[in-house]
Design a protein that fits this description.
Layout (H helix, E strand, L loop, with lengths): L1 E4 L2 E9 L6 E5 L3 E6 L5 H10 L1 H19 L1 E3 L2 E7 L7 E3 L2 E4 L2 H26 L8 E5 L6 E4 L4 E5 L7 H13 L8 H10 L3 H9 L1
Parallel strand pairs: 2-4, 6-8, 9-11
Antiparallel strand pairs: 1-2, 3-4, 5-6, 7-8, 10-11
Helix pairs in contact: 3-4, 4-5
Length: 211
């Protein structure tokens, strides 16, 4: 099955499950995936796609942007060109170009650089906070649905490695958000007032992270 949007034909994958509702998602940049029950017909699915074409366009655009980001190399929102040079033995940076002897050494360097940046910003904001909060321990991992996690059991803040794709203001907001959870372990008005104290434009930043 296929579906055309603005003269571009997109493949449609239909997954049959014991669902009461029908769900539409876009995967791998251009595959429209419809999860539906076994009784819904392709004609009904086609009508559903037509009725939700504006939402589909947004999903496709968002998915394509995510695919493009995967192909680029970011350090705090800045794209760097990667150049592999066999004649060197360490990472060298010239402007927005990174020279590396191989991809493996680049990967190890990148992980260290990310940890240095994230740790630096985390400690910066910890020193800024006037409230009594524990010294946070940094954890970094790739997360699909969350930008950060506060764990009060071990006093840790986990940051999404994908924050390297964004500028420092986004990283700072996520850190402020998670540190604020040490004071208010919820999303109450008091929590957001505390976030606003250190990040007055948090609403705009939150919105940009969701786009």
């Amino acid at each position: 099955m296929e579906f055309k949007i603005d003269d571009i034909v997109y493949p449609v994958s239909i997954i049959r499950k014991q669902n009461k509702n029908t769900y539409i998602r876009v995967k791998d940049g251009n595959v429209i995936t419809v999860t539906a029950n076994r009784w819904i017909t392709e004609r009904q699915i086609m009508k559903l796609l037509v009725d939700n074409i504006d939402s589909l366009k947004k999903m496709i655009q968002k998915c394509q942007l995510e695919e493009e980001k995967k192909e680029n190399f970011y350090i705090l929102g800045q794209i760097y060109d990667i150049i592999v040079v066999s004649g060197i033995d360490k990472i060298e940076i010239d402007g927005f170009k990174i020279f590396t002897p191989n991809k493996r050494k680049l990967e190890l360097w990148y992980q260290k650089e990310m940890k240095k940046i994230f740790e630096g910003r985390l400690q910066y904001w910890y020193q800024i906070f006037e409230e009594c909060i524990p010294t946070p321990k940094l954890k970094i991992r790739n997360m699909k649905t969350r930008w950060g996690v506060c764990n009060k059991r071990d006093n840790s803040v986990t940051l999404n490695s994908r924050l390297m794709e964004y500028d420092q203001t986004k990283l700072d907001y996520v850190i402020v958000h998670e540190l604020s959870h040490f004071v208010h372990f919820n999303h109450s008005a008091d929590f957001w007032n505390l976030v606003s104290k250190y990040c007055p434009n948090y609403k705009q930043i939150r919105k940009s992270l969701k786009e």
